[in-house]
Design a protein that fits this description.
CATH topology of the largest domain: Ubiquitin Conjugating Enzyme
CATH class of the largest domain: Alpha Beta
Shape: globular
Structural class: alpha+beta
Bound molecules: zinc ion
Distance between the termini: 39 Å
Number of helices: 8
Helix content: 40-55%
Number of domains: 2
Strand order of the largest sheet: 1-2-3-4
């Protein structure tokens, strides 16, 4: 049985978060996660770009099964327009979920979420306000962004291969390793891309990957 990253609320690093972001308040949602809100003050820079110090009015909804499930972040000061990378619920589009999950896996705490995922997004927006462009060029968004992320992650060329990799991730590891690898090398997964897939198995349930495979497949069908 693979040990999934399941963490008690006591391991989310609440006191460390309070110490670093004393202006934000944290409200426990009796057994249903946390609500964090207030001004998020930061000082950040992106590779080769200027440092920016800024502050945004933010609300973060942290689900009870954090960090396996991602928090949703909202900008509530009316500064970020809806057409600047927001999802349907108007929460900030911090990037492709699989990339966010992997990044959060490196530091699965509230501070990890804010500093690795949220502040880089806010930095991008602050930079965009100043210069009319993003520091690292336009970011992929929505469906196409997700496919690109999986191609990079799996090191494969096509969306179809991404779906097949996700299907392998949706299977029991021992069974999947005996199947032909989805990259088309002719080798079994266990002798090919398994090293790229195994770390992901620690971050999500198999059902998550099957769900992602279905979603990508739907997208491909609509395109045809
Ligand atoms: Zn986006
Ligand atoms: Zn392979």
């Amino acid at each position: 049985m693979i040990k999934l990253q399941a963490r008690n609320i006591n391991e989310w690093g609440i006191s460390e978060f309070r110490a670093r972001y004393p202006l934000m308040s944290i409200v426990e949602q009796n057994g249903d996660g946390l609500l964090i809100h207030g001004p998020l003050k930061f000082r950040a820079r992106s590779d080769g770009c200027e440092e920016i110090a800024d502050s945004y009015q933010i609300r973060v909804e942290v689900p009870a099964d954090f960090p396996r499930r991602l928090p949703q972040a909202f900008e509530i000061g009316g500064r970020i327009p809806d057409d600047f990378h927001k999802n349907q619920k108007k929460d900030l589009c911090l990037g492709a979920p699989i990339r966010l999950i992997m990044e959060l896996g490196k530091e699965p705490t509230l501070v990890g979420f804010v500093e690795r995922l949220l502040i880089p997004f806010l930095y991008n927006h602050a930079y965009f306000e100043k210069h009319g462009r993003l520091p690292l060029g336009e970011l992929a968004h929505g469906g196409p962004g997700l496919v690109d992320e999986y191609k990079r992650l799996f090191r494969v060329q096509t969306a179809e291969a991404c779906v097949a990799m996700l299907r392998l991730l949706g299977m029991n590891k021992r069974i999947a390793n005996k199947k032909p690898c989805a990259c088309g090398s002719g080798r079994r997964l266990g002798r090919c891309h398994n090293r790229r897939l195994n770390p992901l198995r620690k971050l999500q349930f198999r059902s998550y990957f099957n769900e992602q495979a279905r979603m990508l497949e739907e997208q491909l069908k609509r395109k045809r």
